[in-house]
């Protein structure tokens, strides 16, 4: 009888989905694992898996704004209309957060999405509280505010309507050309210096993009979106992230060059981050889609993370350490000078907070007759 075991476990990858595994929830006290009995039964069962549909789950949010004190971030508050992201980017640092709601950071993260229909109303209440001080808010800091379901749910647009009405500055990061749907609101806010938009461009290789971020807009569509936003007078930047050593980092200069041509005025980059479950998921993805590069990529990642696959320390987790990471940072600085693009500070720098005014929706006292 052939030897069975975990090495015989087939891939869970589906067409149009990024993850090839669905790791258990780390907070569960019990878990189940597949095990091949040696007769190829699992291989036969998983040979042709059906497509995974997207499941939408309504979430009743307790609050709209999430505050942080991280020195690595250029903002102290954020808004997230969705948990999980249908784009399916294998490297997404937000995947582990799905475990907080009892779901896997793997395929669950990109197929079981939670949405917050009452987020705009909650936001309006929180912005109206006495003593609230406006600072730029990051829209979609955790998952993309313009992922495909936004086309029908429209929560992000309603949030922008609230922010515009209150004169509240906002920054947006997205991989979607769907941001152009809200060009009317963004143009008006840009005229008041209240918004900055950033498109994340990970690669210009269409084949790599299809397997690495399967349901995100194509790289060319993102660059086209940069061009449209820039022509509309909306300050627009590009985030070359994540840079994956040995896989897409050679494209850094080309991404910045094409972004400047499209009209981007600011740029940034982030080195690949592999916290918690993402480490094993990324290794499995590499083994399936890029087996010839897997060992080299992982070796270079360890070189930038002190011998480990991840270093969570503030000040290092975004850019890494060691010669390879330093070389990448130097290449980025040289490219900024070469293409004449700004790489200083966060997206919120320069936005106007002085226009914040809560609308007077309820009279503070009855008018005298």
Write the layout of secondary structure elements.
Blueprint: H1 41-45, E1 55-58, E2 66-67, E3 77-79, E4 82-83, H2 107-111, E5 112-115, H3 119-127, E6 137-139, H4 150-153, H5 155-166, E7 170-174, H6 183-191, E8 195-200, H7 206-212, H8 219-231, E9 236-243, H9 252-262, E10 266-271, H10 278-289, H11 294-304, H12 323-339
Parallel strand pairs: 1-5, 3-6, 6-7, 7-8, 8-9, 9-10
Antiparallel strand pairs: 2-3, 4-5
Task: Describe it.
It is a single chain. This protein is α/β, with parallel strands linked by helices. The chain has a single domain (6-339), classed as pyruvate-formate lyase- activating enzyme. Helices cover 31% and strands 12% of the residues. It has 12 helices and 10 strands. A 7-stranded mixed sheet has the order 2-3-6-7-8-9-10. The longest helix is centred in the C-terminal third of the chain and has 17 residues, at 323-339. It is globular, with a radius of gyration of 22 Å. It starts with 40 loop residues before the first helix and ends in a 30-residue tail after the last helix. Mean pLDDT is 89; it is low at 1-8.
